[in-house]
Design brief:
Elements (H helix, E strand, L loop, with lengths): L1 E2 L5 H9 L3 E2 L9 E3 L4 E5 L7 H9 L3 E4 L3 H9 L14 H12 L3 E8 L2 E11 L2 E2 L3 E4 L4 H15 L4 E5 L3 H6 L2 E3 L1 H12 L10
Antiparallel strand pairs: 1-3, 2-3, 4-10, 4-11, 5-6, 6-7, 7-8, 7-9
Helix pairs in contact: 3-4
Length: 204
């Protein structure tokens, strides 16, 4: 959609309000901005939770928290070795610093999964009104990122928010129930959600 620009809070907010997000292609290229067609989303009603994952959730082996350690989560995502389909990471130092600023501006959230008080997985994303995106996730123990995603979807459902923007649909998200819709339909849903008033403490 565009090349160049900056990653200031105002620029990121403007981009997300129009369905556009940054995706650095490499240090040798200008900053790139995307609005894919089709667009990936995950609906609460489509969420697939396997029997083994349901059992794990019932066991409460992991503790899930929101917005307790955003910097560690985005660093965990940047350093993740779990993306077999990717070479390197798009989460550059500039992205990390910019989204930390976005978080402290109240426009980005994190979900943390802990095991014995140690961070072992999680995810982060952007939220504007009732719009929620899932930007990236990581895990260092089995299923920790799945626990974070399911916990997020359940939490949002309790606040009458029943879908998140996944941007694209990779094999992991497809197994969790993510689907693709047209960009036109996505923008209609986006415009509705960003206008919605939600409780100030949505993520604590």
């Amino acid at each position: 959609m565009a090349i160049g620009g900056d990653l200031e809070v105002a620029s990121l907010q403007l981009a997300y309000r129009q369905g556009v997000f940054p995706w650095p292609l490499g240090t040798e290229y200008p900053l790139a901005w995307f609005s894919p067609d089709p667009r990936g989303i995950l609906n609460y009603d489509d969420l697939i939770v396997s029997k083994s994952l349901k059992k794990l959730l019932r066991q409460e082996k992991y503790e899930v928290k929101f917005n307790c350690d955003f910097p560690s989560v985005i660093l965990g995502c940047a350093e993740s070795k779990n993306r077999q389909e990717q070479n390197g990471t798009w989460i550059t130092e500039e992205i990390i610093l910019s989204y930390i600023n976005l978080h402290f501006s109240g426009l980005a959230y994190s979900v943390e999964t802990y095991f014995e008080d140690k961070l072992v997985g999680g995810m982060y994303g952007v939220h504007i009104g009732g719009f929620i995106s899932g930007e990236s996730m990581f895990h260092t123990k089995p299923n920790a990122s799945k626990v974070a995603l399911v916990s997020l979807m359940e939490h949002l459902h309790q606040h009458q928010i029943d879908w998140i923007d996944t941007q694209l649909v990779n094999p992991f998200l497809a197994k969790m129930g993510a689907t693709e819709i047209s960009r036109i339909d996505y923008l209609k849903m986006l415009n509705t959600e960003i206008k919605r008033k939600v409780t100030h403490d949505l993520f604590g």
